[in-house]
Amino acid sequence: MAAGAAEKTNQQTNTARRDLLLQLQKEAQQKWSAEKVFEVDAPQGGANKELKWTGNFPYPYMNGLLHLGHAFSLSKLEFAAAFHRVCGRHVLFPQGFHCTGMPIKACADKLKREIAQFGDPPAFPEEQEEVVEENVGDTNGEAEAKHKGKKSKLVAKTGKLNYQWQIMRSLGIPEGEISAFQEAEHWLRYFPPKALDDIAALGCGVDWRRSFITTDVNPYYDSFVCWHMNTLRKKGKIVKDKRYTIYSPLDGQPCADHDRATGEGVGPQEYTLIKMKAIELPGRLQQLEGKDVFFLAATLRPETMYGQTNCWILPDGEYGAYRAFENEVYVMSSRSALNLAFQERLPLYGEPELLLSLTGHDLLGVPLKAPNAIHERIYTLPMLTILTNKGTGVVTSVPSDSPDDYMALCDLKKKEKLREKYGVKDGWVLPFEVIPIVNIPEFGDTSAPTVCAELKIQSQNDTAKLAEAKNRTYLKGFTEGTMLVGEFAGQKVQVAKPLIREAMLANGEAVAYSEPEKPVMSRSGDDCVVALTDQWYLLYGEEEWLAKAKQCLDQMELYSEDARRAFEHTLGWLKQWACSRSYGLGTRLPWDQEFLVESLSDSTIYMAYYTIAHILQGGNIYGEGESLVTPDQLSEEVWDFIFLNGPAPQGSTIDSAILEKCRQEFRYWYPFDLRVSGKDLIQNHLTFCIYNHVAVWDSNPDMWPRSFRCNGHLQLNSEKMSKSTGNFKTLREAIEEYSADAVRIALADAGKVAFAAELFHSRRLPMIILFSKPSFGSKVSFTVLTSLQK
User: How far apart, in whole angstroms, are the C-alpha atoms of residue 452 and residue 244?
Assistant: First the structure.
């Protein structure tokens, strides 16, 4: 027998057991569907609720196919539901699909721009010459000849799919169909049915009659969200106000966690911008003659400004002089000027007016008058470690309390050649000595020099030791320090700090300023800023509401003390949340049609909607099935009757028997007994879920959530699964390659409570390897499962 034929026969033999499993699972799943074994209704009459069990899993976002990460969390719910089912309980396991927000709209618009620019199909510059990538030895298994594929040079080098068209193609969508995805609604019609089929193929016991999609495409769910928002507003939980929020200039709206490509959980960081006035305008700054020019330096420690000896500038940094109010001009980086403009601190909202482009070299040696400084005149000096992606690029220097400032000043004092290199005159640096301003018991009156000496730090380039020195001094300076100078001498720093800041702001010596704590990128690829926006806000953190949320948390089962601590931490810091958007898909705010309900705000009590979705929607996920109820019949009074045990709605044209059936379904299946989710949702969605339940059912704790189970994430080949990088494995691929049973068994044993899991997959090796690794700390466990291909 020829070698090729033998190999082909061997391959066919190797998949025989797997193929048999696939055939058996198909037959079983068809039987389950035909016999409707997972469809369950609330029993008639006064049924014992102790026999019911309701579980749910966050509805996945429909901007792509489901992957193994979804299955990792979903499997925990599936096994719990199956356990309670075999114990004889009435089990409700519903599943919907999330389409609200900007990701789908952003992807559709991105695809539309690509087609407009590069054609249909597009000829991307990187794809003009394609190369075949062998991937020899790659654990993804692409090394086998039949799995070779063409990639653009850019993709071959970086592994990143830069264009939306490439991402769609990587999902297996035929090129002839991709252009249809320019329309956002096409995503809603394409991906939810596929997700439904994939979950069913995994063997999950879902009552699919109760499935739905979000957004106003589904008029029934749209009405439910309107009722939810109106209920919160009536209870005083939603207000309109101007507040600081993470904001995408490109999208023209706040950028919440699920709107972000990077930076989830990042919030605004508040600074004080110290206004240091230029006494003289040398060099290129002479073009600003006649104006009041201020160098703006961002600081978290305004109380230390008494100890300023100079101002730091990055010599090779890019700066600008921006028009401010009246006759003032601000010198700062362009990024910080954009933030400032969105905070109404510059004349044009969101549009900083650049008067003069400058480099750091243009700014060295400028004499400044700094507020609260003991010296009448300080100078701008070079510092090589300034980061222009943080603050303004202009840095105040307080060497008494900042180890970085102290060592940089020492370097300039000691190194004549360094001064010569940057044209620094001796008079700009040599006369200035450390000024004691804060006493810290452990370190004395000059903490920075003391700690730098203890750690034997030699220069400003000793970054590791400087970081250690900063960690040792900064917190103690605030918690234990005592002011030595100024109006508040003798007072504790933590008392004096806000008073000094308030005085500087009131005197026009400083400007309030915020920027993202860390870089945040929206899903449209925009670098986000902090903006002062006129928005509708949910008043999370309000005292009475917070107390009820804590009460709910205290009575919940979380299966992990680490998870409980994470929830308690989130409740400690979570405050007002912008719940409205102007771009994307979703439900319009019922009282302000200009805005859409934000995607994390329309998805907090939808678990209640599962209980009646099958009655309203007729088993159609879009609400387009045959139904005895029309969306326009769903008044506020109807929803109140169903969910809040309100009085019978007067004048309702809905049959009273249907109304009673809806209320019976809700009151039997609620509250839910378990919600399974990734632990990353603790900081937003899951905590929001608690807040919203205790608000809507404030007088009925029996309807509050009973338990959350939070697991870690599933990584593929030691990397985060991501459509944009191409490192992901769809649920359908895993099922077809290993069978549903093999995937279920692997997922069952991987990822204990609050654990992450790692998946190593290879077509070269007939196995899938999953192992648990601690998210918060604990030991590692392994599962090795053959793919049953031999």
Answer: 37
Measured between alpha carbons, how far is 129 from 127 in angstroms, rounded to an integer? Answer: 5
Type and span of the H or E element at 735 = helix 731-738
| Inter-axis angle of helices 561-573 and 543-554, nearest 10 | 180
Extended strands (E) in 179-266: 238-248, 253-254, 260-262
CA dist 445 and 433 (Å) reads: 14
Count CA atoms closer than 13 A to 656's CA, side-chain side: 5
Distance CA 677, CA 722 (A): 18
Prediction pTM value: 0.77
HEC secondary structure over 444-472: ECCHHHHHHHHCCCCCCCCHHHHHHHHHH
Q: Which amino acid is present at 506?
A: A
Helices and strands in the chain: count of H runs, count of E runs: 25, 32
CA distance 257 to 678: 14
* Cβ proximity of 710 and 702 under 8 Å: no
Bond from prior residue into 671 cis (ω within 30 degrees of 0): yes
Under 8 Å between Cβ of 277 and 365:
no
Cβ-in-10-Å burial (0-12, 13-18, 19+) of 517 comes to middle
Give yes or no for a contact between 256 and 600, defined as CB atoms under 8 angstroms apart: yes
SS3 536: strand
CA–chain centroid gap for 418, Å, is 44
Question: Which amino acid, residue 264?
Answer: E
| Contact (CB, 8 A) for 737 and 752 | no
205, 36 contact by CB (below 8 A): no
Average pLDDT over residues 469-494: 92
Interval 100-120: pLDDT, tens: 988 899 899 999 999 999 999
Q: How many residues does the chain have?
A: 790
Contacts of 178 by beta carbon, 8 Å cutoff, 6+ apart: 111, 121, 165, 168, 169
Q: 98 has which bridge partners?
A: 61
The DSSP 8-state label assigned to residue 406 in this structure reads: H
Where do we find the tokens 């049924």? 47
Degrees (nearest 5) of the Cα angle 90, 707, 549? 130
Q: What is the DSSP letter of 556?
A: S
> Encoding tokens for residue 576?
């007002």
| Distance of alpha carbon 578 from alpha carbon 539, whole angstroms | 9
Q: Which helix (H) or strand (E) holds 780?
A: none
Between helix 606-617 and helix 219-234 the angle, nearest 10°, is 140
Q: Any idea what the Cα angle at residue 66 is, between residues 63 and 67, rounded to 5°? A: 120
* Helices 731-738 and 184-201, packing angle to 10 deg: 30
Contacts of the segment 2-7: beta carbons below 8 A, 24+ positions apart: none
Q: Please state the φ and ψ torsions of residue 563, each to the nearest 5 degrees.
A: -65, -40
Give the model confidence (pLDDT) of 431-480 as tens digits: 999 999 999 999 999 999 999 999 999 998 899 999 999 999 988 888 99
Residue 170: the pLDDT is: 86
Task: Give dist(CA 381, CA 363) in Å, integer.
Answer: 9
Q: Measured between alpha carbons, how far is 378 from 429 in angstroms, rounded to an integer?
A: 9
Residue reference for tokens 């040696």: 365
